[in-house]
Predict the structure.
Amino acid sequence: MADMQQAAVAERAGRPNGQEKVSREELIRLLNEDLCREYQAVISYVVYSQVLKGPQYMNIAEELETHAKEELDHAITIAKQIDYLGGKPAVTPKPVRTSDDPREMLRFDLENENETVRNYRERVRQCEALGEFAMAEHIRKILVDEQEHQIDLATALGVDVIEVTRPEERA
């Protein structure tokens, strides 16, 4: 079963047979995508924390402010790793989705966190395959925060975090 799950993750990532090894140049490219997603998260959390209205959203709005600060820290960490590898950190965020519906905004955030968690899990494996163990540890620390964000958002939406990740991602 685990082999099928690994194959599914690898297929989604465009690598056959569970290969995690990428070149340093490919890792730089992937980390820059992650960096753009961190920029997106900072912007999303800043905006969403201010526009969520109503007593039912007061606690989550405060939590989103904290998330914004954590995402900025993640962006700095990822930019340092890109620089260490000899790359240039990206400067453009991924597009930020907004809505007048607070639940929809939280769903957008949860979808983004799900993607981020998937990518960072893979990034850890890729770093280790390249022998970049310290970099893998930096990304693991980010992954802990991202999974907490995922749980916070799922809780705010009243969904189980297990429901929002696919089985192959929970392995």
